[in-house]
User: Which sequence fits this backbone?
């Protein structure tokens, strides 16, 4: 896609003086509205403790959700006719990933006549970071005539590798039961999901609708809404281990990893923007 930019600029600037068409440069600034939310539910499974008659049920849940941020775009369009053009554009969309409060619940049924023990563990929020999404697009563009013009464009988009990191503390499981105090010892561990530097770009698409309001002979105020969609990216979890884990915690860790869904991030967002176009 980057190789097409010099070619399109050269063709457009050469054609304009000859009267073979019109070149339009557009810059815009706006806000993104991403569509991503995923709830992670996991269960370490049954736990064997050296106490007859004790059975333990445990599960955890946390959520990852995207929120909007700033977006900016730049486009170069060559119009061989007044109503039809070829558009090359670059966009940068800032999407924020937010983690919701994580929880971990345990119920231990103790030998009679002891009552069951229920423990709810509130975990700290995770830390998530997603670098700006920067697709390149090659579109076909249509526009109406007049001082107020309606326009529509769409085509193929190429999204470079996503740089995303996430750290989240999760409940690992029950590691001890105190029958005298009716107390459960629950271990936790920090997990990391990361995607960076793997060079996995992907093809997707974009579609935009907008309005141009004339500003003088060659300028225009541009109001636009545009949507982007790309295939899912899957990111696996890995534990953050500072010291070797005891055998029981190591077993619980393996069960958590087996039952915790991978991160499936779906780059899908809409952005609303305002900008300025110049024709020559």
Assistant:
């Amino acid at each position: 896609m980057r190789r097409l930019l010099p070619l399109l600029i050269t063709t457009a600037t050469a054609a304009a003086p000859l009267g073979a068409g019109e070149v339009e440069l557009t810059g815009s600034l706006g806000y993104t509205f991403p569509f991503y939310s995923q709830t992670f539910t996991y269960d370490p499974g049954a736990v064997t403790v050296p106490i007859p008659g004790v059975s333990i049920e445990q599960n955890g849940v946390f959520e990852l959700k995207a929120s909007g941020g700033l977006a900016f775009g730049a486009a170069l369009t060559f119009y061989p006719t007044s109503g039809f053009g070829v558009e090359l554009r670059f966009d940068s969309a800032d999407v924020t990933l937010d983690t919701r409060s994580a929880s971990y619940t345990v119920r231990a049924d103790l030998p009679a006549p002891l009552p069951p023990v229920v423990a709810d563990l509130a975990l700290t929020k995770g830390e998530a970071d997603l670098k700006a999404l920067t697709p390149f697009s090659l579109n076909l563009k249509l526009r109406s005539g007049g001082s107020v013009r309606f326009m529509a464009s769409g085509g193929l988009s190429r999204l470079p590798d996503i740089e995303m990191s996430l750290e989240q503390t999760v409940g690992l499981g029950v590691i001890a039961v105190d029958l005298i105090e009716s107390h459960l010892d629950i271990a936790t561990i920090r997990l990391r999901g990361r995607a960076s530097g793997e060079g996995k770009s992907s093809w997707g698409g974009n579609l935009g609708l907008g309005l141009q309001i004339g500003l003088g002979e060659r300028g225009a105020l541009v109001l636009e809404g545009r949507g982007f969609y790309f295939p899912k990216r899957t990111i696996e979890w890995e534990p953050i281990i500072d010291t070797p884990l005891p055998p029981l915690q190591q077993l619980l860790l393996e069960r958590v990893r087996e039952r915790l869904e991978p991160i499936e991030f779906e780059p899908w967002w809409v952005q609303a923007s305002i900008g300025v176009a110049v024709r020559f």
About this structure: The chain has a mean pLDDT of 86.
